[in-house]
Structures are given as C-alpha cells and as structure tokens.
Amino acid sequence: RMYVxxxxxxxxxxxxxxxxxxxxxxxxxxxxxxxxxVRQFIEDGYQWFLVGxxxxxxxxxxxxxxxxxxxxxxxxxxxxxxxxxxxxxWNESNQQxxxxxxxxxxxxGSVSHAPYQNKAQLQNHSQFLLTHSDASFVIYDExxxxxxxxxxxxxxxxxxxxxxxxYQLTMDDLQNSVWADGF
Length: 183
Description:
With 183 residues, the chain is of the alpha/beta class. The protein has helices at 25-43, 57-68, 92-104, 120-131, 149-161, 171-180, and strands at 5-11, 46-51, 76-81, 107-110, 135-139, 165-169. α1 packs across α2 (57-68), α2 (57-68) runs parallel beside α3 (92-104) and α4 crosses α5.
C-alpha cells in the first residue's frame, strides 16, 4: 500500500488581509499564488489537502484544490473544523462559502464534537492537524501578526521534533507574485 502524503493549508483570515468582499481583486491574486503552490505540492506527491474552514486562505485554498481536481482527479480535500457548528455565527454569504466547500470536500469533520466552548478546542485542532499531516503550507509573516500565528508557532515546534515540513509564504512572497502577475 502506497503512503499518502497529507498537507495542511492555512494562513491569514480574509479580514486580516483587508478583504471584506468576494469580488476583491486580491482574492484572484492570492488564488493564483495558491494554485501554483498546490500544483507544486501535487507534483511532489501530496494527495490530501486539509483545511480548517476559516474564511480567507483556508477557504480559498480549499476552492483551489477543488478546481485542480479537474486536472488531478486523484487529489482529495479534507475540511476539519475545530468544533461543531463552526461558522454558524457568520453572515449568510460567508456561510454559503463554507457550505459550498463542505458539499464538495472528500472528507468533512470536526476535531471537537461540541460547539465552541474555549480556546483549548483551537489548540487541540492545531495539534490534530499537525499529527495527521506530513507538512503544512502557511501563508504567514512574523511581521504581520494574525490569528494563524498560533498554528504557525506550533507547527515550527513540531517540525523540530518530528519528520515534518513547514512551507511558508510571506507577505513579500505574495507581493512578488502580485508583481510577477503584472498587477
């Protein structure tokens, strides 16, 4: 039986990037960058792409994986929410984004089987994603603090003690891909 390589995609929330509408041009640029990264991961043998379902990099990453399935039918998307009823307090259009992802994902679950109670559920979620993957792809920059910093720091610590790789894309990397695309 062949070993299946799994990678977590995470990063900034949409609001942390100043993106508040689905029509924001930045989303197109970010998705272009995500597409070339995910394509590279597929070439490197990754088959399962895991996201936590947060609005922003995780949802866009999931959408990119679903788009690439047309080209690479063997790849799979797993959506692992930190807790039950995740996103139930979001506005209707954001819930629609989440629901579209869930409808097309190959696997959907939540690490905690209770609604949100405390931040320990978020820490357990990060730990679960790390121990159930071989790598993470984090769009995060230490100069621009965001909520994914907790996962990022946990992943870097995990990388030191396990056979694990953290791929990182910084704000500079994103800017460079923007300029490379002629924007």
